[in-house]
Amino acid sequence: MKVILLKDIAKIGHKYEVKNVAEGYAQNFLFPRGLAKMATSSAINELEVLKRQHEEERKIREDLLLKNLGDVESLIIETEEKANDQGHLFAGINALEIAEIIKEKSRLDIPVQCIELEKPIKEIGEHKIPLKIQDKKAEFTLVVKAKV
User: In this protein, which residues make up the domain named Ribosomal protein L9 (predicted)?
Assistant: First the structure.
């Protein structure tokens, strides 16, 4: 059964992709949770329009971010996460969470695709986070503190 994914789903695909999945999986898991909808011809046409709009918005955000690249490099963002006594975080911080932290703390909307994190951050301390916006590279500092 062909479905249109409404959210990113691990091992299946990304938002707005058309995927072929088992009928039972679609009807019993994806549809009830609002993760996908059936891929009819009208839904696929809507999807193309949505994709174009989404891509245009992303391009505008990246262009704006590129203009403010100097501000991003001087950015120091602090966050508190739960950690043990040795300074290891109970849950790693991935690129998606970093994008949300940046948006919350500094009001900058950095697309997750621009954050080039090799692996999740798993320790408290100061971390340099690399960004790649179009062909330009930058990095900012993320300070992770232990939650008391």
Answer: 1-47
